[in-house]
Amino acid sequence: MSIESEIASEVAGLQPGQRPAITLKSAEFRRTREQGWADLEKLIGITQGKGVRALSPDELERMPQLYRATLSSLSVARAIALDRNLLLYLESLSLRAYLALYSPRIGIIEAGRQFLRAFPAAVISARWHVLIAFLSLALGIVAGFWLTIGDESWFTTFVPGWLSGGRGVASTRASLLNGEIFAPWPGFAVSLGIVSNYLFSHNTLVGILSFSLGLFAGVPTVLLLAYQGLTLGAFLALHYNRDLTVDFLGWLSIHGVTELTAIVLFGAGGLVLAEKMLFPDRYSRVDSLALHGRRAAEIAVGAVMMLFVAGILEGEFRQLVASTPWRFVIAAASAVGWLCYLILLRPREPAL
Amino acid sequence: MTTTDAAANVLRREWRKRREIVTPEAVPLTVELAEFSERAIALLIDLVILFVAIFVLLFMLAFLTVKGLSGVVFVGVLMLVLFFSRVVYFIHFELTARGATPGKRAVGIRVVDRRGGPLQASAVIARNLTREIEIFLPLSMLISAGGGGPGVHWGYLLLLGWMICFLALMFFNRDRMRAGDLIAGTMVIALPRQRLLGDLVEARARFVFADDQLEAYGKRELQVLEDLLRRPNDRETQVLLRDVADRICRKIAWPQPLPPADTVPFLRDFYTAQRAFLEREQLFGRPRADKFEAAAKRD
After folding, report:
1. Is A154 domain-assigned?
2. What is the mean pLDDT of chain A?
3. Are A38 and A143 in a shared domain?
4. Tell me, what DSSP letter sits at residue A178?
5. B29 has which bridge partners?
6. Half-sphere exposure of residue A235, counting CA atoms within 13 Å on the CB side?
7. Is A350 helix (H, G, I), strand (E, B) or coil?
8. In A, residues 5-34, which contact B (CB 8 Å cutoff)?
9. Is residue A86 domain-shared with residue A121, that is, in the same domain?
């Protein structure tokens, strides 16, 4: 008889020689802890079925304790037990409790508030990316303007037919003024449709493209931004040549301040992705992306929000306010508003 | 492949891919990745629920504003309503305590943080809004583009290619992440459903085994025997049990022949003795993973 079984028989109070009852440490361990596991399972069942609110205060207090006790049981069982069903059960129970305890328990309103606090911080942390994106766009505008101002055939090169909406080399001053800059307001429902079409068409496509193409080292992002600039510059030159610069700028800036900021931010988000992919620091590229991707996504989501505001400004206000000075006032107000929100008055404390 | 491996494959049907996460308490847990089909079905269920809800909503809306809505405008408003209801639906359900949309709950899958930390609200928002970029916005554009200029066909192809690229991304990484999961640092797992079954240990043994007989096998063989003993008792199981009992008798040189009625008691006693022996050896720092390691330790 080995030493261990001798000890075991002494503990069991048996005479040597008598056949010992087999006592397994793992079976004993299971017998003493089983009740706690069953309790935890019951509590998880309640939270999954009726939600956390269905738990009494006592149960609420017990649940994390039981969870930690179960985790400790799992660690012990891994060391001493070879019962596969027991190990799988404990692992499964621990995972279910982990999922129940570590899920975000905030409403969508609270999540929205957290986001509104996180967005400016994300933008500030990506200020260099914002600068690069802005420069790309500005470069495009300047180039588009200079090229088109001298030779208007560049306009047809830069602006695809479906975007120009009938405007082009052949447009006269009057047709631009009445058909575009001071076009009549078509009514609420129709303009809401315009907002929506606008939101889900050109600009969002450009925005999400320049964001996602950041995954390709950021080069397409910069090119796309510069191309947007070219288009805009061409439009500007077209109106400049017809002596409509001020009216056009008013027409553009009422929503353009918001819209162009949004597009720059999309680009900046894409550039963040590009940077973290190219220079993952000490992480793997996928981990680096996961670590910083959330910040980039916050910027992009914020930019979608800004596009939505721009859509309302374009669809409703621009048509309602048919006066260039007032348009400039609204544009300036929106610029000040975004400046305050994003930079000057941004929440200092990071969201929890 | 040994006979034990073959038996384990038949008994366990482990077809899911496994990953390890480490909880904030520093305990590693094994999770099972959700299958593509499960995720597709979950999405489908969610979309059907959304579709019905929006249909009811629009039905009421249509009664309110029958006049003055042209086709293009209607599509525009529709897109807007769809966009907001989608965003609110997915984010709301994944943020509440149950942590999954109705579709995901029906299928039994969950979103978790890839490294095992607490699931952040920002991660949930990020992964759901990225879904917009991946599928829904291109889809909306495809629908609302309607009759356009000559460039539209290329636009269709571009948008389709866009969606296909994002879809393909899921199949080309080991954690089956879509772009949203990649950015948010999450993955989708199957919910565990393991029940605690009775302990197979026999308190009083009729058959007694000597230590040198128990040295023949290791942990793997023990656990396959456990799976076999837990199988429902039908004809096939009985045949298998008898076969295993014969093999064990040969291996450990069991002296007397075993009557068929004693098959199960013999195997349960053997399981108990074997587990007691292996657990004791493991405690003393001599674990035996399988019969090959056991044989190596014996020599």
Report:
1. yes
2. 81
3. no
4. I
5. B21
6. 24
7. coil
8. 19, 21-22, 24-27, 30, 34
9. no
How many domains does the structure of chain A reveal?
A: 2
Alpha-carbon dihedral sign for residues A274, A277, A279, A282: positive
CA A76 to chain B, closest CA, distance in angstroms equals 11
Asked whether residue A45 falls in the same domain as residue A165, the answer is no
Closest Cβ opposite residue A80 in set B77, B184, B283: B283
pLDDT mean over A166-172: 71
Structure tokens at A191: 């303009």
- Same domain, yes or no: A65 and A192: no
Rounded to a whole number of angstroms, the CA Rg of chain A reads 32
Helices (H) and strands (E) in chain B, counts: 13, 4
Same-domain check for residues A159 and A283: yes
Q: Which one of A56, A85, A102 terminates a domain?
A: A102
Residue A298: closest C-alpha in chain B? B126
Q: Which helix (H) or strand (E) holds B188?
A: strand B186-190
Helix (H, G, I), strand (E, B) or coil at B210: coil
pLDDT digits (tens, 9 = 90+) for A100-146: 888 887 777 888 888 888 888 888 888 899 999 999 999 999 998 88
Residues A157 and A278 in one domain: yes
Which of A75, A102, A129 is where one domain is finished? A102
Of the candidate ranges A11-15, A277-281, B233-237, the one whose mean pLDDT is the lowest: A11-15
Distance from C-alpha of A28 to C-alpha of A38, rounded to nearest angstrom: 16
Nearest CA to B166 among B135, B124, B132?
A: B135
What's the ipTM? 0.87
More confident residue, A207 or A183: A207
Within-domain flag for A181: yes
Per the structure, the complete domain to which residue A42 belongs is given by 24-102
What confidence score (pLDDT) does residue A13 get?
47
Q: What is the pLDDT of residue A352?
A: 46
Q: Do A103 and B117 touch (CB under 8 A)?
A: no
Q: Does some domain include residue A7?
A: no
* In the predicted structure, residue A63 carries a pLDDT above the cut 80: yes
How far does chain A reach from its first CA to its final CA, in angstroms? 62
- Are both A137 and A189 inside the same structural domain? yes
Q: How far apart are CA A167 and CA A145, in angstroms?
A: 16
Whether residue A106 lies within 8 A of chain B, CB to CB, comes out as yes
Taking only the tens place, the pLDDT of each residue in A249-304 is: 888 888 888 888 999 999 999 999 888 888 888 888 877 877 788 788 888 888 88
Q: Report B:44-83 residues touching A (Cβ under 8 A).
A: 65, 68-70, 72-77, 79-80, 83
Interface residue A292 vs chain B (CB under 8 A): no
On whether the CB atoms of residues B298 and B228 are closer than 8 A, the answer is: no
Residue B209: phi and psi, rounded to 5, are -115, 145
pTM: 0.78
H/E stretch holding A162:
helix A161-164
Domain assignment present for A199: yes
Secondary structure of residue B109 in the 3-state scheme:
strand
Alpha-carbon gap, residue A186 to B274, rounded angstroms:
85
Cβ within 8 Å, pair A89-B77: no
Token pair 């709950």 is found at B105
Q: State percent of chain B over pLDDT 90.
A: 14
Q: Which two tokens stand for residue B39?
A: 């995720």
Are residue A326 and residue A254 in the same domain, yes or no?
yes
Task: Please give the average per-residue pLDDT across B197-210, as a whole number.
Answer: 80
Residue A235 CA, distance from chain mean position: 32
